[in-house]
Amino acid sequence: MAGCNDNFKMTILLNAEVINRLKKRINETFADGKRRVEWKEACREFHAKYEELAFPGGERTAYKRILSGDYNAIEAGLAFIECRPYFFRSGYMFKDLLRKLKKAPLDDGQQQRLDIVIKKFKDYKAQRKAAPPH
To answer: Is the pTM of this model over 0.85?
Structure first.
């Protein structure tokens, strides 16, 4: 079901853009002390939308759904770790999803995809460790 996975990736990446715009608005309005009302509204909007935008079907229940074998949650989790979006707290989500997917009931194709991401992540960590500090 590659098409399903591509849809998840597109959704995840588009949602990451929205999260980043919402977070940027918080930062911009916070920097200007005269815009306190705007800043409060930006915070309210960010927190109201974040949970649904961070992960298809909602971040709050994502890990439970993955571990229970929910096919769409597993596909969304794999799509997330494959495309590795960048937004507020996405690095933590990446690591949490990786741990949960390792324990989830995956089919052979899903396991292969997970193994590829795990190998790439191990290679990435090894490169960072070997790189001289700036």
So the answer is: yes
